[in-house]
Amino acid sequence: MKKIPITIVTGQAGSGKSTALAAFEDSGCYCVDNMPVALLPQFLSLPAGNADAFSGLVFGMDVRDSGFPLNYDTVVNRLRQNQFRFRLIFLEADEATLVRRYSQTRRKHPLSIDKNLHDAIREEQILLTPLRDKADRIIDTSTLNVHELKTIVRKMATDITKNDAMQTEILSFGYKYGLPVQADLVMDVRFLKNPYFVETLRPLNGETEKIRAFVLNNEQTCLFLRRYIDLLDILIPQYEAEGKAYLTIAIGCTGGRHRSVVIAKQIYDHIVASGRKAELAHRDIDKSISP
Fold first, then answer.
1. Which residues are annotated as a binding site for ATP?
2. What stretch of H or E contains 162?
3. Where is each RapZ C-terminal domain found (predicted)?
4. pLDDT along the chain (291 residues), means of 10
5. Which residues are known binding-site members for GTP?
6. Which class would CATH give 6-161?
7. Which residues make up each annotated binding site?
8. Stretch(es) of the chain classified as CATH 3.40.50.300
């Protein structure tokens, strides 16, 4: 079993862990929900049997196992020393969304035995913070429906089973819409000259040639790109060597429509040209125009 990718799916109750596990199962993984972390070494020591028929092992873990947050590091680090490969996926949602979901399903939160739902959600968030900080991938499901979450998870399953290399995403965004929660590295490019203030360019976005030329044909932009790409060329191999499974590089401008889109594409092109796999996404490109 040591060569089979092992994924731990955890996060806040109500954030979509069951949906994620179902999507992993649909992708050919063997899934076990509510696995006590203390039993994981024993499970992985069992005879492999027909394990080769599965593309990965996925375990759902949460605070229903009271020892999970406390014992996770000890158990997983010991297994890693024995050449097991782990990825930790953390699902979360904002409090209002979790409250609405519990109201709709009429289920009880696992920590709400002696407290109200709001307090249970907040206590769980505190308990899981150390695990969230260690996660290879954080998925905020607040605005996702079931089908969108399954699509994300199926793609993750494909990436994990086809290629064990680090998955890198370059993401443009607008600060006015908030920081992307999944970002590992965030670069603010609001210091660059803004095409918003050119009336004829304002309606266009960073995927058009006119905006690209405006942003890139500038000495300040060229200097920044050289220095920042040099930094990424140092950092990315270090993250790979450390065993990180996912890396999200977020590039932000005010509205996420012009400057960040152009810069994100330049960084994406450089990473792909270096022979690494990368994905490019523009979170806010279609939102309202703003400076």
1. 11-18
2. helix 146-162
3. 167-286
4. 79 93 89 90 77 78 85 86 85 94 85 87 92 90 91 82 73 94 93 95 95 96 96 92 83 96 97 90 84 54
5. 62-65
6. alpha beta
7. 11-18, 62-65
8. 6-161
